[in-house]
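Support reply, case 0932

Customer input (verbatim):
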Amino acid sequence: MDSRSRILTAVRPAFAKGARPSVQEVSRAAGISRATFYRHFRSRDELIHELAVDPDPATRDRVLETALDLVGRHGLAALSMDELGATAGVSRATVYRLFPGKPALFREVVRAFSPLEVVVETLSGLQARPPEEVMPAIAMAAARGLRGRMGVLRAVFMEVSGHGPDTAEAIEYVFTRGLSAVISYVIAQMAAGRLRQMHPVLALQSFIGPILFHLMTRELVEERLGLDVTVEDAVSQLATSWVRGMRP
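Our regenerated output:
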């Protein structure tokens, strides 16, 4: 058996069980030197690709974080999957194994770094509660989810509102996973007589708009106008104001 086959045979069971051995551990298991390993595989990522196993979660997270940074700096249209792989320290093959293209990549960036998942989770536990409790709760959940991630909000907002060809999957995720859940709750509360009747999309826009504007301009307003209200208190007040304005 040649060295390449010995490497693949030695490490395939470990990778199949979810382990992610280092190059040194792979070399030791195969009974070869690191130099021999690198004669057959340019990197650990190339070995993973050859084995047809998924990259470890840490690699996926690193690629997503790198993608977020590159999108924030240059925009999604300018993002190169080759540059993404090089910057994240993985091969192009690994990037495409994780994300088959920019639409899937951007969808996962939005899923990982936007507050939609935590908003939906918060709402799912409060479906039977009145708007006075629910709307401030989901507003604060969103604000907490975005703490330290305002660059995420700006980048995602700009890309999604631009409706480019690579944003379709992210837009679908935003509407089907996040917005539809809140709209369904608002419709149910209108039907129950707890919120006044109006188009539910307009109602949701009037809820999101002030909170979004506050979060996106907060740093500037703090600097220029001396705002000394915490983020949680601010979004809670805005959400409570919305509920008062929506009473029948």
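We compared this against your earlier run and they match. Two observations from our side: Residues 3-51 form a domain with the Arc Repressor Mutant, subunit A fold (CATH 1.10.10.60). The longest helix spans residues 200-225. Please reopen the case if you see a mismatch on your end.
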